[in-house]
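Hi all, long-time lurker, first post. I run a small reading group and we've been trying to get comfortable going from sequence to structure in the token notation. Rather than ask abstract questions, I figured I'd post a concrete chain and ask someone more experienced to write out its structure so we can walk through it together at our next meeting. Sequence below, copied exactly:
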Amino acid sequence: EDLSRILSIQETRTLSKNLMFSYKNVVYQIQRETPSYMMRGAKVFVLEDKRGQIRVEYKWRLLEYRTYHEQEKAAPIACSKQINIMVDRQVRKLFKPSATHPWRKWKFNHNITLEQQV
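-- Answer (accepted) --
Happy to help. Here is the structure in token form:
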């Protein structure tokens, strides 16, 4: 059993007031018969073996848990400078004229002075 503990992936999680924590987008809740306020904010170890089985330990004792629900995927993170650009792209599509559009055929004559244009 110690060998399986050593060869497992180990991560630390902090329990919430409801004795809940999340690991790999799944929420787990610790099942206790004693009062739950004793373990609020406690650090627990989440051990995942190579088969993907999860064990939860607190002070070297195995804890019972149940899967509460699966979380949805998080939204992509964007810096504050890029938020407006991303929103604009979602709200409206940029207009790109075709190759035969009159705007593309218009040419500016550099030889004409300002007085001649008016």
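A couple of things your group might point at:
The helical segments are 2-6, 83-91, 102-105, 114-117.
The chain has a mean pLDDT of 78.
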